[in-house]
């Protein structure tokens, strides 16, 4: 097998493509021949040592991938060689093969493309947990999605629409805003050139959004929170903008609003039954054509560093896929 190995936490440039012995799965593990892996923002943080999960060195990055089961270890009952599966973990995906705990492997339903499987669980699981579980989104409410053209943003947009909400998609360029309209957004906001508070006031008849989905953080947080509706819910999903905002607490008091943390990884670990139910609903929406991963580019696995560079330049709309031929 081959894998991109991270031997130091010096970032993307230190990664190297290496040949390794193909491992055998131990008890409770499976070996997957990887067809496709997607690049997520935590994959960038992980190779820099900045993510909350820090795998022991050396490791292959890549937290989300899909492929075919090749071998199963002792005690594994729900997976068999030849099955199409998706895997979620902290690392291992940027390779030709991976041995992972069977508990983190999801059989893909018939008709579920492997490429979509590699770009599904992380972003759609996060967005479903945020909007449906944490925000308790109701039909007819207005959702503001920040970073709406990115991986979790496009997933949040689709899930909100599937739930009967009105969606305002906020992004940094007119091109990204137009892509969001094509994906079903009801309105857009270009926060690189529009006054956020004025735009939200106009788009909501002065009421403000009921739910804010924020994977960006940074300077956008305060003006958006000042614009939130009465009893609004502000979902803290991540900080792709770099800075962790400090919000004045009196704003929550004045709006009767909630600041709600979203940590999908721990939700999966702590509440596996609820997580499984969410994934079943998502699979049903996928089968019905209501949601589908937005693929920005599909690149050979050998071009991982180019994929990282594209993500770092903030050009990505949807997800980047790396595939093995």
UniProtKB/TrEMBL annotation:
Domain spans labelled Enoyl reductase (ER): 11-322
PROSITE patterns hit by this protein: QOR_ZETA_CRYSTAL (PS01162)
InterPro entries given in the database record: ADH-like_C, ADH-like_N, ER, GroES-like_sf, NAD(P)-bd_dom_sf, Quin_OxRdtase/zeta-crystal_CS, Zn-ADH-like_protein
Pfam families (alphabetical): ADH_N, ADH_zinc_N
GO molecular-function terms, A-Z: oxidoreductase activity; zinc ion binding
Source superkingdom: Bacteria
The name this protein goes by in its record: NADPH:quinone oxidoreductase family protein
Lineage, broadest ranks: Bacteria, Pseudomonadati, Pseudomonadota, Betaproteobacteria, Burkholderiales
């Amino acid at each position: 097998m081959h894998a991109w190995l991270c031997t130091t936490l010096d970032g993307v440039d230190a990664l190297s493509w290496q040949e390794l012995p193909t491992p055998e799965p131990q008890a409770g593990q499976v070996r997957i021949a990887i067809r496709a892996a997607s690049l997520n923002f935590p994959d960038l943080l992980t190779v820099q040592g900045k993510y909350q999960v820090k795998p022991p060195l050396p490791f292959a990055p890549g937290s989300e991938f899909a492929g075919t089961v090749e071998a199963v270890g002792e005690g594994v009952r729900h997976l068999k060689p030849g099955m199409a599966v998706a895997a979620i973990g902290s690392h291992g995906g940027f390779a030709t093969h991976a041995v992972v705990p069977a508990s983190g492997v999801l059989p893909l339903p018939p008709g579920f493309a492997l490429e979509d499987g590699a770009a599904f669980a992380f972003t759609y699981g996060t967005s479903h947990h945020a909007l449906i579980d944490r925000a308790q989104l109701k039909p007819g409410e207005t959702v503001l999605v920040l970073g709406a053209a990115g991986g979790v943003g496009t997933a949040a947009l689709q899930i909100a629409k599937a739930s009967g909400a009105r969606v305002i998609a906020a992004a940094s360029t007119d091109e990204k805003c137009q892509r969001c309209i094509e994906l079903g957004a009801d309105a857009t906001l270009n926060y690189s050139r529009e006054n956020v508070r004025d735009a939200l006031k106009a788009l909501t008849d002065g009421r403000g959004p009921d739910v804010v989905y924020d994977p960006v953080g940074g300077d956008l947080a305060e003006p958006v929170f000042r614009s939130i509706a009465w009893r609004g819910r502000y979902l803290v999903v991540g900080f792709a903008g770099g800075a962790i905002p400090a919000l004045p607490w009196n704003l929550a008091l004045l709006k009767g609003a909630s600041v709600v943390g979203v940590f999908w990884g721990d939700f999966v670990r702590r509440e596996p039954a609820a997580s499984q139910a969410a994934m079943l609903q998502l699979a049903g929406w996928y089968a019905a054509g209501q949601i589908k991963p937005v693929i920005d580019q599909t690149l050979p696995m050998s071009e991982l560093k180019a994929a990282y560079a594209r993500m770092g330049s903030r050009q990505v709309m949807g997800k980047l896929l790396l595939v093995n031929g």
